[in-house]
Amino acid sequence: MKNALMAGALGLLMPALSAAGEYNITVDRVMIDTGDFVKEGIGYNGASPGPVLRFKEGETVTINVTNNLDEPTSIHWHGLILPFEQDGVPGISFDGIKPGETFTYEFPIVQSGTYWFHSHSGFQEPNGAYGAIVIEPEGREPFRYDREYVVQLTDKHPHDGNRVMRNLKMMPDYYNRQQQTVGDFFADISKHGFVTTLQDRLAWGDMRMMKADVEDVQGFTGLINGKGPEQNWTGLFEPGERIRLRFINSSAMAYFDIRIPGLEMTVVQADGNNVQPVTVDEFRIGVAETYDVIVRPKTAEAYTIFAESMGRSGYARATLAPEEGMQGPVPELREAPLLTMADMGGMHGMADGDMATRDGAEDMDHGNMSQGSMEQASMNGSSGMAADAGTSMAGMDHSGMDHGAMIMAEGGASDPFYAEGSGLVPVAANGGKFLSYSDLRAQKPLYEEREPTREIELRLTGNMERYTWSIDGVKYEDAEPLKLQYGERVRFKFVNETMMTHPMHLHGMWSILDVGAGEWNPVKHTVSVQPGTTVYMETEVDAPGQWAFHCHLSYHAASGMFRKVVVEGGPDQGNTAGVEVANDGGDA
Amino acid sequence: MRTLTLSALALALTLPSLPVLGSDMPQDQSGRKDALSLWGVQFEELEYRYSDDDEELGVWNGDAFYGTDELKFRWLTKGEYAIEEEAYEKLENQLLLQTPVSSFFDAKAGVRFDTPEGPDRTYGVLGLTGLAPHWFEVDASLYVSDEGDTSAEFDAEYELLFTNHLILSAALDATVAFSEDREIGVGKGLVSTETGLRLSYDLVDRSFSPYLGVVHERKYGDTADFAEAEGGGTEDWFAVIGARVSF
Q1: Counting CB atoms within 10 angstroms of each CB, which of A353, A578, B182, B187 has the fewest?
Q2: In the prediction, which pLDDT does B92 show?
């Protein structure tokens, strides 16, 4: 009798429990059909990408992850603030999920917005193990929309991740099919003259660097929500509706430049956090970043979502249309960018006499981010950027080159988050507004503004010819953990000394990107650092435990651009300092 | 070390539900903490040669490696098989350890075994290999044979991209002997050069690239005299057809 009552009560409770967020995910071998090729990969619940997980702010979610692979797996909840044991990084948060095992994640949802999840084991993520997370906020959002779509991008490669890694190590230019040719040499001669062209080639050859080295891994098919350009994922709308597009870049390596010809996009969220709305024609999304934009198509026509990779070696395409089957025009890929000497600005030995200091640098209030130039500004607190930039410009010891000795990028577009004279500065296809990091302002500061307690400089380092990537010249395998104290606010200074762009991702704690807006600096989880630049971010160290911190380019992380961050102290932890030091005998 | 790791893993397995305390914050024992060990196989040359005096040769020049950024084990293999004579004119294998000494160069050391038709030789090898400024791939080796003779070999290769798939590669290989080894027909001084021009097309990624080319081989000084004394030639032109292969 009593038992029956109990069962009844349980039965009543059950639906409530599952509404409070119980999810089951299986990790499976799947076939991925991009339209260009079919490749075996890894997916969730039988598909790649996996399901869109819809959480509610304030609930506690329970996620049962069953590993149906014959190798260990893991799921990392990218951008979610949670206890470190739930963060899903094998070797740092937990032991991983063995074949056949079910691991139950359980954590409270303390935020809202667009995020994603992916495997943190081996190359399972480039092989297809990723999905989207949408968290509904507790309160009202500061913008309105009538419908929403997740637009999740990836750069699906016909080669398995292990093979890509091996090929890159064997021949770093294995996948680079944009190298300069004999034809380019003669084209440059007719454009710039023989001497300039020769000097240009000699300068690059002397460094053993390629200016066409923008994308290491080419030959991929860009996918949107798992669909290749020909398969054309389509989102439906009624004219006049506001559509929220939740862009997520789940690529292994590719940055995408995204536009919807005919529509302006209002960016309302970056990395899950609301930003003050900014209307753009195009934006660049780094690997692992998310941007939410609102578009409002007024006419009943098909609009193409066109996402060109930063190096223009591939693209993804999807359609917004009033009816299934409609198509808009698909633009041509624009010309591939070339790096300039400015992008090499961070490399050692580059600051030699050949390079004239750029005179009369226009836009003094933004041309700061360059290596060297911000040294003096660095300790002046987060609001000092714009003010200091003017004086520090004089100290720039790189770029320049505009005295005719070298071939420079054309157009002269600039963005404070790119080296002055960089060949990578994006330009909107329609000549309009291209989003810059410097346009991002937090909608509402997440933390009270305060002075950082200390600054940690991290040099992003590597050797393209050996395909080794590291932080401060040290690969993960040889590195001591980076130690932070609970309660401090750390100012990170990223100095990119390589020729590649690195999307740096700190797990477990927010990355407050310094755009010079003080308390309105945007709050992100992934911060892109362009070649030859220095970027600052601040982190409130409010999450005890240990966390991963790495470049989110899969093959950079795997070859060493990775660190473990240990947060010492904290409410639940006690002080771990002594133990860690005893364990690895390292620096305190 | 291995057993330590294993027992740590076993411990972790048996105590999965214990709360993680600051005092037992685990160290990263995952594969990520290990140096990346990789392998690769490449044949720069895998070709059929036809000489201006109707000699036919099967020729290869390849290597396989296994190891980390810091230390690689490399097997180099080179051979020239005379098809009519059914004999190896050249058969050379090197077993080497290779480690970086600068941003662009590796040092290598090991043993070389020459086992062609005729007398064999074993050499100790010391060398440098890497990428010189302006994209010249260079390789220099110093050999000391079991007969006490020393020699040096220098290799350089340059690639000219007509397109990103159609590539002309120029290769030069020169050998110098510091003492004579009459038995294997090597005289003191510049011994021989081999110059090749190969026009290849990357058909399947960079793993299969068929090519056509010309190769010029020449012997010099005493080495040339020794060859002539034995009724051999001192200079050969070859038309070659083959493929660059890597996997």
Answers
A1: A353
A2: 98
- Sheet order of strands, A102-108 included: A38-44, A22-33, A60-67, A102-108
pLDDT (tens digit, 9 = 90+) per residue, A17-48? 444 689 999 999 999 999 999 999 999 999 99
Residues A456 and A576 in one domain: yes
Taking alpha carbons only, the member of A147, A330, A152 closest to residue A237 is: A147
Which chain B residue has its CA at the smallest distance from A73's CA? B30
Report if residue A406 sits inside a domain: yes
Q: Is residue A452 part of a domain?
A: yes
Instruction: Flag whether residue A475 sits within 8 Å of chain B, measured between CB atoms.
Output: yes
Instruction: State residue B27's pLDDT score.
Output: 80
The minimum CA-CA distance between B20 and chain A, rounded to whole Å, is: 8
Does the residue A194 lie in any domain?
Answer: no
How many Cβ pairs closer than 8 A exist between chain A and B?
A: 111
pLDDT surpassing 70 at residue B80: yes
- Give pLDDT, residue B8: 43
Range 72-91 of A in CB contact (< 8 A) with B: 84-85, 90-91
ipTM: 0.88
Minimum CA–CA partner of A563 in chain B: B33
Closest residue of chain A to B167, computed from CA coordinates:
A181
Hey, which residues 177-196 in chain A have their CB within 8 Å of chain B?
177-183
| Cα→Cα distances A89→A41, A52, A53, A117, A478, Å | 20, 21, 19, 12, 19
Same domain for A83 and A99? yes
Q: How many domains does chain A have?
A: 3
DSSP 8-state secondary structure symbol assigned to residue B178: S
A263 & A411 share domain: no
Domain check: are A372 and A481 in the same one? yes
Residue A388 and residue A414 in one domain: yes
Considering CB atoms only, which of A171, A477, A545 is closest to B35?
A477
A357 lies within 8 A of chain B by CB: no
The pLDDT of residue A237: 98
Looking up residue A92, the CATH number of its domain turns out to be 2.60.40.420
Q: Do B20 and A206 touch (CB under 8 A)?
A: no
Q: What are phi and psi of A257, to 5 degrees?
A: -100, 115
Residue B27 has its nearest CB partner, among A559, A568, A584, at: A584
In this structure, the answer to whether residues A278 and A358 fall within a common structural domain is no
Q: Do B131 and B162 touch, CB atoms closer than 8 A?
A: no
Instruction: Return the structure tokens found at A403.
Output: 């005295």
The domain locations on chain B are: 99-246
Co-location of A331 and A377 in the same domain? no
For A151-206, the pLDDT digits (tens) are 999 999 999 999 999 999 999 999 999 999 999 999 999 999 999 999 999 999 99
At B130, which amino acid appears? Answer: G
Domain stops at, among A77, A112, A140: A140
* Alpha carbon A517 to its chain's center: 21
pLDDT digits (tens, 9 = 90+) for A454-470: 999 999 999 999 999 99
Contact A445, A519 (CB under 8 A): yes
Give the tens place of pLDDT for each residue, A87-99: 999 999 999 999 9
Q: Which domain holds residue A219?
A: 145-178+214-337
Within a domain: A66: yes
Phi, psi values for residue A385, rounded to 5°: -50, -65
Condensed to tens digits (0 to 9), the pLDDT of residues A92-132 reads 999 999 999 999 999 999 999 999 999 999 999 999 999 99
**Two tokens, residue B122:** 């074993």
Nearest to A86 by CA among A67, A107, A71: A107
Q: What is the mean pLDDT of residues B210-214?
A: 98
CA distance A87 to A104: 12
- The CATH class, in words, for B99-246 is mainly beta
B28/A564 Cβ within 8 A: yes
Residue of B nearest to A558 (CA): B32
